[in-house]
Structure formats: C-alpha cells, structure tokens
Amino acid sequence: MTYRNDLPEIPPRLRSLPVQNGYPVPWFAAKVDGVFDFRVVDDGKFAIAIKKQLCWICGQKLGAYLAFAIGPMCVINRTTSEPPAHRECAEWAAKACPFLIQRQDVRRESHLPEGVKDAPGFHSPRQPCAVCIYITKSFQPFKVPTEIRGAGHGMLIDLGEPVEVLWMRQGRAATRVEVMESIDSGYPALLELAERDGAAGVRALERLRLAALKLLPQECTCEVNHD
pLDDT of 8-63, one tens digit each? Predict the structure, then answer.
C-alpha cells in the first residue's frame, strides 16, 4: 500500500512500519478485527517500550534524547500517558496525525472496540489546538492511584526537565498567542481537579502553570495565515 500524497516527508524509521489508509501504522497501535485501530494501544506495549527503551511510534531503540508529543495541559502538570519517541518521529506525528494537526475537532470515539478503556489519569476529548514536542533526557513511570478516573491498573509518566520544547499548530510552528489560547481554554479543567485538594492544590497547580509559561514561544510579529 502506498502513502498519502499529502503527508510530510516520512522519516526512514517510520518507513519500516506497515501502511494502512495511506499512513504508517504507529508501533503502539492494536489490531481490531484484522485491521489496525490507531486509537487503540496494543496490550503490553507500554511495558515493552519502557523496559526495552523503544520508541512509542516506530518501535526502534531510543537514544539519549526523548520526545513526547503532548498538549499544553501535560506541559503544565509534566505528566503523560504515553512513553517517549524519537524526536523526528514525534515531530512527524505532530505534522501528520489528523487529530494533532486539528483536522478533527475531537477524538473519534465511534465504533471503538468493546472493552477499550481510557488511558490512566485525566483526559479531555477536546482539540488542544497546540501541540508541544517536549524533549527531555529523563522520565519516570508511576502507578496511578485507583481513585483517579480511568486509572484501572495503568501507569503514567512523570516528565523530566525539558532540554528543548517545540510548539506546533496545524503542522507548523505555533505562535505564543495560539499556545496561550490553548492553555486558557484547557486550564479550568485542571483547576477544577486541583480544587479538590483545597488551597494547597490550587497553589501547587499555579506554580506549575507559571513554570510552563516560561517554555512558551517568544513573541512573534510575523503574520500567520489561518486559511
């Protein structure tokens, strides 16, 4: 099967993956009724990726630098549900994935296989409108408390200090204003969770938000085509 004509240049690592509907099939994707469902994670892949230090997207060995394609709320709380990838794999996903490039307003949940559960932790089906390629040299998986919605027996990842961040929107570099709009629209949901822990929880979240704001793109005076 051939690739879609509108895809950005595909990194060599991703060319070793099977192709479905014109897209390379990410390593983590599960097969459902004989076909891959890009929304469903293959059972056991999380543990394999962590133990063998494999890229979540291409399945090959990782190097020293670890990239996470995450939304602004994950940048604030420094937490994600997916293991790291190579930088070029994460960047390509941010330029090609229909959800990450804002081709879809919300995550598609129709016709999901029976028994599929949300990843651990808090998730919103909303379109974040901005994606961060968060590059670090360290992370730490941890078990999610069962009282957190959707946790089950799942694990989450605590992100280490970033060595670089790249902000993207619709497959291009995002502006500071666009990232701030995404943060402002998503932050109330995080704040609501923090309020369950009282004033201390709110203060802790605000410290995280202020730290995240230091990672935003610099002000840009260039014009952006929104067509």
Answer: 999 999 999 999 999 999 999 999 989 999 989 998 999 999 999 999 999 999 99
CA distances from 27 to 12, 68, 89, 218 (A): 14, 15, 11, 34
Q: Which two tokens stand for residue 55?
A: 């890229």
User: CB under 8 Å to 32, separation ≥6 — which residues?
Assistant: 40, 113
User: Domain limits at 176?
Assistant: 12-108+119-213
pLDDT at 152: 46
d(CA 73, CA 92): 21
pLDDT score of 161? 97
Mean per-residue pLDDT, 142-160: 75
Q: Per the structure, how many domains does the chain have? A: 1
Structure tokens at 153: 């027996």
Q: How far apart are CA 71 and CA 84, in angstroms?
A: 14
pLDDT exceeds 70 at position 5: yes
- The answer to whether position 219 is within a domain reads no
Is 221 domain-assigned?
A: no
Residues in the chain: 227
- The answer as to whether 113 is a domain residue is no
Residue 135 lies in a domain: yes
Distances in whole angstroms, Cα of residue 162 to Cα of each of 46, 67, 132, 133, 165: 22, 9, 11, 10, 7
- Measured CA to CA, the distance from residue 107 to residue 101 in angstroms comes to 12
